Fold these 3 entries.
Entry 1:
Amino acid sequence: MKSQEVSQSNNTGKGTAQVGSLLGSYPHRLDPKRRMTIPATLRSRMGMPEIVYVMPSLGGKKCLEVFHPQAFEMRLDELNKAALTDEAAADFVTMIGRVSETLDVDVQGRVRIGDALLQHIGVDRDVMIIGAVNRLQIWAAGNEPSLDEAFGKLAASARTIHF
């Protein structure tokens, strides 16, 4: 098994399940129509969503981040509370709307990420999908953090965030 399950999800209906932690690494090749299949294990942990949201990383990483609707909409709720006269919030809403996408997930778990986003991270055909606890990261194959780097930085990073 490529992923470890950390919490249980209770499927109560399509797209309405409790979201579990998303972990593991999954190499993948885009199909001829440039679609990516979200691995079944991860889709299940996401509650089998019918849509997902994708955006460039805000943390300066050269990857895309894919969110379950519940996780993304929770973040958008904070923006909805901002005053319409809040220039910083208005600018952010414009930019996130410009560079993010809502993707339909087909019955086989495939999504079609737009060419602009794929080009932004340098994807040709091969990607690495990494479970990042509450979202997925999509990296151009070969640009993702190496296992040696991940193993080497894990303890120091855990201490920094008091994990």
Entry 2:
Amino acid sequence: MSYQFEDGYPSDLEAKREILEVGRRMYAKNFVASNDGNISYKVSDTTLWCTPTGVSKGYMTDEMLVLMDLDGNVLRGSWKPSSEMKMHLRVYKENPSVKAVVHAHPPVSTSFAIAGIPLNRAILTEAVMGIGEIPIAPYAMPGTQEVPDSIAPFVKTHNGCLLANHGALTWGSSCMEAWMRMESVEYYATVSMYTGNIIGQANELTCEQVDRLIERRTNSGITTGGRPTCRDCSDKDTCQFSTCKGGSGCSCHGSGQAGADDAALIAQIVRNVIREQGF
């Protein structure tokens, strides 16, 4: 029996294979510990396969996966889905074009989420073109309605977000795209950490450079991602872009107290990482 009703969706078999593969990659890269994280993949406008609760993502098997509808009803499977599926279901309802969602706890991205620092500086061309800026959803109690409510504002405009004091969430047109975006978020966070403190310098792109990258991003079919903060945002009066934050609230290098506060937080993150990894 198959719940694949619409063209453009993977078959049940294809969806489950991809979920298991992403789970193995997630565990192998230490993006999750123990039984953390969850993955879902739509196979029709109203149904999706998802990972079970209480199982390591690196050791899942086909029969553990659960078929649900968008109201959270279990249609097939003997395992219980995670309470965090509420977060996935909200993504699908807010943006029906999304077909897959990945939630993980990658160490550096999660550290930024704990520190309250969004990934929004235009320092990496690939990040601007691929995922854009990654905002932070406000803290929400796990397993409650607060979690889906916290991410709802970003689902139509961005490709992922950090979850305050929790982890990261990405989505996409396939399970593999959602996973690749998770990898990109962690890489963006790692580069931000290194340039922010270990090297101590990051040359942000100008607003003109950011604009051209976003134009290329749009031409490639990616219409979401927001606009990272550019170098010129340090002076609102000279920046020609309406999305520029500018002034004392701008997080660009050398742009005032907000930048200094972020630098101090990043420094603390780096010290903690170095201490934990024994560098």
Entry 3:
Amino acid sequence: MYANRDLPITASHSENVHADAEDLRFLLKAANLSQRAAAKYLNVDERTMRSWCAGDGKPPAPVLRALEFRAAYPASLMRMIESNERTISAIQDGRITGIGDGSGTETKRNLMAELEKLQMRNEEHRAMLRLDQAFHRRQEAMLGMNEQWLPRGSGLPLEDSLNEFDAAEEEFRAAQAECDRIAKDIRAGKR
């Protein structure tokens, strides 16, 4: 216990813990993770995660780094998609009129090839983003069902939980099939 509770270090510590809780909640939102899912992802107790999010205690730096990494992947895919969309729009609107040093016909072919390449990249990025989101939805659904098994729950998952898992599994399989189709095209040299 501190001898003098008005020491600046005490105030600074509570402000840092509050800032850490805000950072943690921001990272959870950016990573599209609930507190429960984050606890499972990080292999920490759910009560500990709730405590950190409430500002009661400071999450270790590796926890924040792991969540930063988890949040960065979908965010970087979205940035690439948005950047490609701006370039696609500029080509289609005529704001980008030439790529390469060739003749008018060659320049037009280069523009069309670049447009097609950007559209395929965005299709690939969107497919990866859908797969990532579907994977995490399926994980959440599985965690929801697991909570209902013994010894924590009544022993059997509820119908709603089973339906959510089935829907999440179907979404995941569709996203996986799309990524598999794109990978097959890449291997065949069509991309």
